[in-house]
Amino acid sequence: MAIEEPVFQVVQRDGNVELRDYAAYFVVETDVRAGFDEAGNIAFRRLFGYISGDNRGKQKISMTAPVRQDAAEGGGQRIAFIVPREFTRDSVPQPTDAQVRIREQPAQRLAVLRYSGRWTEARYRDAERQLVDWITRKGLKATGASIYARYNAPFVPWPLRRNEVLIPVTGELGKP
Description:
- By secondary structure, this protein is an alpha+beta fold.
- It contains two helices and ten strands; from the N terminus they run E-E-E-H-E-E-E-E-H-E-E-E.
- It has helices spanning 36-51, 121-137; strands spanning 8-14, 17-22, 25-32, 67-71, 77-82, 101-105, 108-115, 141-142, 147-150, 163-170.
- Strand 1 (8-14) and strand 2 (17-22) form a beta hairpin.
- The protein is globular and about 50 Å long.
């Protein structure tokens, strides 16, 4: 059975980078005051509790992909799971843990660089630099901070893992 991902349309491709237009969707997220590599493990327990029924409806919720990670306001890391499309603003179960919240991610255009390998900050920062350089070379404008996206379970061998760096942008290739 395939794991649900946010809906997007590939607008343009350039080598290993894509411009994607994402539809709006909901996330369940938590902020963690920890380093980049440790934050995911801490946040996963909170978020997994939410989808396992630790919510006001005591409803189990399907796992989705990717697990998103970016810098939290005030420091630390923000980790998020995508909420399945079956839920609306009115039907999504509300968290019982005060450290977990539901947020709507508005529709947006993202430049995306896909890579495989281990889940480390060094690998992410290398891919992030490549994507920022690409955005600059193509005359696009970044409109927000980068997001790290992990698509696979921890037991998937690292050479087979799908990872992405996503950066919100404006513009089109060849049309800055």
